[in-house]
Specification:
Four copies of one chain form a homotetramer. Chain A is built from 13 helices and 14 strands. By secondary structure, chain A is of the alpha/beta class. In chain A, the strands form three sheets. A seven-stranded mixed sheet of chain A has the order 3-2-4-5-7-6-12, sandwiched between helices. The first copy, chain A, has a five-stranded mixed sheet with strand order 9-11-10-13-14, sandwiched between helices. A two-stranded antiparallel sheet of chain A has the order 1-8. In chain A, helix 1 runs parallel beside helix 2 (33-45), helix 1 packs across helix 7 and helix 3 (56-68) runs parallel beside helix 5.
C-alpha cells in the first residue's frame, strides 16, 4: 500500500475515478477548483469524459444527461455554485437518477468568502430544491475517509437511484494528508442499470424515457409515495455515525466534518482533565443517525453541538433526543475555524454545568 | 369599497403595485404566469419597470440590482424556477437587500406537474440557498389575505432589509375570489433607504457599495453575527398565526395556505359532530409561530398536521411543542388536493384516539 | 441655436432621441460604450426604455421585438459585437422591420484593438448575415452630419421598413466637436405603422404576425422578389454623395467617413499646389452612389480610393466606373489613422502618373 | 473500392474524419442536422471528441479552443446559425487558426425556410464578420467532390493557418449518392503545428499565446499586412474552377454548387440543339477563379450567371471580365430550385441575343 500525499480536492477526484466514475461536468469556483482541474487532467487518461460546462446550471443538467444513460456521473462546486444546482438536483431526485454532487463549502451567505464553512447544512439535508425529496448526505472528516465516502456515495446513488451529496468544506478540500487507495485489481462493479437506462434500444426493445414530469396529479402522488418509501428505507438502513468514548461518557459533544477533528482533540484534552465526555460524529447527515443519538443520550442530560455555522444541526439533534436533554451550542461562522482550545474551554464550562444538574 | 373579482396571481400583482412596488423582473412558468403578464401590462401604466428576464437566474439578479438602488422590487416563479433563484436569494440575504420573491408552488420534485402543492416548505423556511440565512415566509390562505400579506412582505423587507418570500400555490394563484383594495389616497410610505442605497453620490457624498462579499473571515463572522441578531429579532417580533376555536379545543389541527381553508371546513364539520377540535394556522412560516403552538398545546396531547406535501412542517411543530404531544400527520402529494371530507375523516379517526388517551 | 460641445457617441444618442427613438437596447464595448451610457441616462428622463441586454445577440433580438410593435428602436456596438448581431439583422430584414443599428467600428479582425477602422465595409454593405438582403448604410464624416444621418437613418428605416446601419468609427465616436440640434417645437412625425405593427388587436381587428419564417419555397421566393424590388427602389432613390471641386477636377480621390475629413484636407493642399483633383465622398455606402461615380469619372482616367482598411470599397468603385479608369488604392489598417500629409504625398505621386497618361 | 450510398451531410462528416478531423462542435439546425448526428455517433468510435454546444456562438468558440491546440477542428450549421458564427470566424482569421466551418445553406433572410439556397454567397466570400479578412470558400457540386473538397478544406486551413468555409446547401446535404472513400492505409499527415500550437510547454519551452488581440495600432497594422500578403498568396495559388466545353464555346453559362449540376444538364441540352455554349463552374468561391473567367471570356461577349439567389456572384464575374462582356442573370430564390428546362429556356433565349450581337 503506497501512501500518497494529496490535496483533499484531488483525493475526491481520484476516489471517484477508482469508484468507476468516468463522467465529470464542472465549473471552477474556489475552494473546489482543484477537483475540476484534476478531472480535466485525469479523465482523458482513463478514456472518460471531462467537460467544463458554461455554468453551474449547465453542469448539473449534463450530469442529468449522463446519469440517464446509466453511467456514474459527478459534478462539484462550492456554496454559491451549489445553490445554482438546486433545480437540477430536484430533477435528478424526481427522475430517480443516480449521481454524486460535491459541495466544498465556503463562507456565506451570498458571495461570502472562500474560507471553510458548514453553513450549507440545511440546504444539503432538507433539499434546497423544490418538491418532496431528500438526498443522502455524507460528510467525511479525514482525507482517507473522503476516499471511502466517495465510493459509498456512488454505492448509495446506484442502489437507491438517487442523487447523493458529498458535503465537505474548504478546509478538507485544501489540506494535504497522506492517503492510501485500496486499488482492487478488478474493475469496480457498478449496479447494472440495464432495466431503465437510456442506452439505445438496439432495435430489440421498446424505447424508454427518464423524466421527472408527470402531469397527472394522481400519477405524481403515486410516484411521490414511492419516493417516500425509498426515503424511509434509506432512513432505516443507511444511518452512519462514529462514536468516541461512549462506554463511560456522562454527556456528549457532537460535530461533523472538519470541525469534528478539532472537537475530537478537545474532547481528548478534556478527558485528560477528568471530564467524562464523549463525541458523536454523524457521518451521514441525511439520514441523520437519530438512533445513535437517541440511545446514547437516554441517560445523559446534556449535549454540546459544535458547528462552523449558526446552529443548523441543532434541529436534527433536538428531534433525535428526548426534550429533557439540554442542547447547548457553540459555533463559529463566516469562514472562522475554531481551534481545539476554544472548544476545550466550552466543554469545561459546560462540564461544570452538567455536574451541577 | 368596490369588490373586484380577480385571479389570485393578478391579486398579488395589484397588491404589490399598491404597496409601492414599481419594479418587477420575471420569467413565465405555469401556474404563476398571469402574475408576470399582469405586471407586464400594469407597470408601464404606472410609470414602473417590467422586464421579462432571459431566465429565472437573471430575474433574481435584476431584483438584486433594483433593490440596491433602494426601490421596492419583486420577482416571482413557481417551484422549479424558484429553485433556480436560490443563489440569488442567498445574495440578497448576504447583502441585506429588501425584496419580495413569490413562489406559486406546484407539484415536484423535478418538472413534476402544474397542480398546487406545498412541498417547497423546507426550501422556503430553511433557506434553499447556501449560508446562514433565513427569509421571512408569509403564506396567505385567501385572496383578501394575499393583498394584506403582500403589503406586509414589503414592510418586513424594508424594515429588516431582507428578502421575504410570499409562499402561495397553484390553487390560490389560479382561483378567482372577490377582493377589496383599501386604496389610500396618499401614496404608500416606503422605508427611506437614503442611508445605504445606491442612488448616485450627487457629487456630495462618498460612494457606497452593496455587496455580499467579505473576504476576511473575521469580517464575515461579524457580519453574520449581525445577521443572526436580526433573525432573532424577527423571530421574537414577527411570528403570526391565526387560531380558531382555541377557547374550548381539546386538541388541534394545524395547516397553512390553501389547505388551511379545507382544514377549517373540516374542523367546523367535526365540531358540528361534537368533536372539540381547534385549528392553528401559521401565517408566517418563518418565523414559525412557536409561541402559539407552545402555549396552546400545553394542555393537549395531540396535534394533527395537514399538508399538501410529505410532511415538512412536522419538524417545526415538533420543535415547538412538548415531546409528550403526539404529532399525527395527514398529507397529500403531487398536486393532489385533499377535500374537506377526507380531512374530516382523519379528524374523526384521531378524535377517537385522542379520546382514548 | 445653441452650440453644444459633445462627444460623437453621445451625439448619436441625442440625435436618436430627437428623431423620436425612445427604445434602445445595448451592450457595452469600447469605443461605443458612451452611447450606451448616454441612453441609460437620457431615455428614462424621456419616459423611454433603455435596456442593457445580456449580450449583443440579445440586444438585437430586443430591437426585433420593439420594432415589431411599431416603435423606433436602436442598438449599437463596435465591430466584434456587431458581428454577433448578423443573424438578428438578417431577421429584421426578412421580417421587414424598421430599426437603426450603429457600428462604431474598431480595428479587426477578431478582438483586434479599440482604435478606429473602416474594415467592416463589406459586412455592412453586403449583409454580413445570411440570405438575400441589403441594408441602407450611412456614413457621416462630422458630428453635425451624424445628427442629420441619424435622423435620416430612422426615416429610411420607416419609409422602407428595413434595418439601417449607421457606420461610424472610433475616431468619430470619441472626438468632441460643437454641434447644433435643430430642435423642432413639435414632436417628430414618425411613419404610421398602424397597418402592420403588433400593437394589440383591441378586440376589433384580426391578429397579425411579424415573422421572417415562410416554409413554403414559392411563398419565400415571392417575399424575396418583393424585397428585391424594394432594394431596387432604394438603389434608385436613396444614393447620397458629396462631391468637392467637381467643376474643374481632372481626376478624383474618394473616401468616406472619418478618413474623408483627412482626404479633404489633403485634396485642398494638393489643389493649392496646382493639382486639379476633386473628392467624391459617398454618404450612403449602400446604396452605393454609382451614378455620381459613373458621371464624374466619364472623362477622367484615374481615381484614388483611400480607406482605413485593406481595400474594400474598391470593388464598388470598380463596379461603378468604366474599366478604362484606373483605380488606385491607399489604405491604412489596424487602427492606424493616415494623416493629411501621407494622403497628400499619395495624391502628388499619382498626380504625376495621371499627368503622364 | 466499395461504393457507399450516403446522405450528403453524412458524407461531409465521414470525409472530415478521414481527413484527420477528430474534433467537432455543433448545434443542430435543419437541413444540416444529420452531420451533427453523424459526428455524435462516429467520433467516439474513433476516440475523437464530439460536443453539442449550447449555441452556435459557443460551438465556433469551441473550435477556436481546439484549433489553438493544433488539432483539426470543425463546426457546421445552416444559414441563420452560420450568421451567429461570424464573430468567431473573424476571431479565427485574426488569430490565424486553421478550422473548417460548414454551411449547409437554406432559404433566407431571417428564419426563411429549410429549402436549399445559395444566398449566403456574399457572407461567405466577403467575410460576414468584422475586420479585413477573407476565408477560402469551397463549393462542391457532387457528393464525391464533397469528399475531395472536405479534405482540401483541411489542407488549405493547415497550410495557410486560416478558417475555411465549405459552402454547400440543403439539396446537396439531403440528397443520397454513391460515393467512394479513397481510404489510405496510413493515417492522414496533417501539417505539423509544433511551432505555434498550445500543447503544453512540457516544462522545456517558453509559454505561447494564440490571440487576435493587438492593442497597439502599428502592431495590428503589421499583423494585418501579413494577413493581406497571405490572402494575396492564396489568391494567386488556390483558384479552382471546372470548365466544360471551353474548346468551342462562343459564350458561357456560369454557376456553382448544386445549381451547377442543373446548369450543366441545360448546357448539354442546348449544345444538342446546336448552341455553342460552355460552362464555367467556380470550385473555389474565394479566391474567385478570376483568371479562368478573364482568359475564357476574352473573345466572348456574353456570360449568363445562374444562382439560387438574387444575384450575388454577378459582382465577382463583372470584376473578372472586361466591361464589354454582357453579364446576364437568371436566379431563383427562397428555396426554389430551378429545373434544367428553365435554365435551358434562358440559354436559348440568350443564345439568340448572343447571335444578334
Amino acid at each position: 500500500m503506497t501512501k500518497l500525499l494529496m490535496k483533499g480536492n484531488e483525493v475526491i477526484g481520484e476516489a471517484a475515478i477508482q469508484a468507476g466514475c468516468y463522467h465529470f461536468f464542472g465549473y471552477p469556483i474556489t475552494p473546489q477548483s482543484e477537483l475540476v482541474a484534476y478531472m480535466a487532467k485525469r479523465l482523458p487518461e482513463e478514456g472518460g469524459t471531462f467537460l467544463q460546462a458554461e455554468s453551474e446550471v449547465a453542469a448539473i443538467n449534463m450530469v442529468y444527461g449522463a446519469a440517464s444513460a446509466g453511467v456514474r456521473a459527478m459534478t462539484s462546486s462550492s456554496s454559491p455554485g451549489f445553490s445554482l444546482k438546486q433545480e437540477g438536483i430536484s430533477y435528478l431526485a424526481g427522475a430517480e437518477l443516480p449521481a454524486v454532487i460535491v459541495n466544498v463549502a465556503r463562507g456565506g451567505p451570498g458571495l461570502g468568502n472562500i474560507q471553510p464553512a458548514q453553513s450549507d447544512y440545511f440546504q444539503a439535508t432538507r433539499g434546497g430544491g423544490h418538491g418532496d425529496y431528500y438526498t443522502p448526505v455524507l460528510a467525511p472528516f479525514t482525507l482517507q475517509e473522503t476516499i471511502e465516502l466517495t465510493a459509498e456515495a456512488f454505492r448509495l446513488a446506484d442502489v437507491y437511484r438517487t442523487p447523493v451529496i458529498l458535503l465537505t468544506d474548504g478546509l478538507l478540500g485544501q489540506m494535504m494528508e497522506p492517503v492510501v487507495f485500496q486499488q482492487s485489481s478488478t474493475p469496480v462493479q457498478t449496479e447494472s442499470h440495464n432495466d431503465w437506462a437510456l442506452q439505445g434500444t438496439g432495435g430489440i426493445r421498446a424505447p424508454r424515457s427518464v423524466t421527472s414530469l408527470e402531469l397527472n396529479a394522481s400519477g405524481l402522488e403515486k410516484r411521490n409515495l414511492k419516493l417516500q418509501e425509498k426515503y424511509q428505507l434509506i432512513n432505516q438502513s443507511e444511518q452512519q455515525a462514529d462514536v468516541y468514548f461512549a462506554e463511560d461518557a456522562d454527556w456528549f459533544v457532537t460535530a461533523y466534518g472538519s470541525v469534528a477533528r478539532t472537537a475530537l482533540s478537545a474532547v481528548k484534552h478534556a478527558r485528560s482533565e477528568g471530564v467524562n465526555v464523549g463525541l458523536i460524529r454523524p457521518v451521514s447527515l441525511w439520514p441523520f443517525p437519530t438512533e445513535t443519538y437517541r440511545s446514547l443520550c437516554e441517560k445523559t442530560d446534556q449535549i454540546l453541538v459544535v458547528e462552523m455555522s449558526a446552529g443548523q444541526m441543532i434541529d436534527d439533534v433536538k428531534l433525535s433526543v428526548n426534550s429533557s436533554v439540554e442542547v447547548v451550542f457553540f459555533g463559529r461562522m463566516g469562514g472562522s475555524v475554531p481551534d481545539p482550545e476554544e472548544i476545550f474551554d466550552v466543554i469545561i464550562e459546560n462540564a461544570k454545568g452538567a455536574a451541577k444538574k
